[in-house]
Amino acid sequence: MIVQGQCTIFKKNLLSGLENFATGTTQVYKIALYNANAELNAATLVYTSLNEVTGAGYTAGGEILTPIAPASSGSTAYVSFDNVSWFASSFICRGALIYNSSTNAAVAVLDFGSDKTASDTFTVVFPPSTASTAVIRIS
Fold first, then answer.
1. Exposed e or buried b for every residue in 18-48, given b needs 16+ CB within 10 A?
2. pLDDT score for 81
């Protein structure tokens, strides 16, 4: 089962200074896609290839994400990412894991709500980077 949310290890890593979304960081964040058999939730510690999508146009480990500069508004700090696409794709996915590929540490789990079928271009559209909509928010 895929349960959307921030991973607890991500929160711990933030407090330990192990995450950095700032422009120019050397840390690389990726998004990997998973089928409905995946077990992803707040307890997920690291990227795993178990039940990761396979198919045309998809490479294990997923795609590199481009963070939008972290910001804050009121008591909320937030960050989101540019949209990411897979081309010439043919696969079915149910959710995704955002992870720090420099450490393999899990950041957040996304549940797409139902199986999504890719045929040609498959795009994950991230919400706007605002205090109330960004994919990662800390209040």
1. ebebeeeeeeebbbbbbbeebebbbebeebb
2. 95
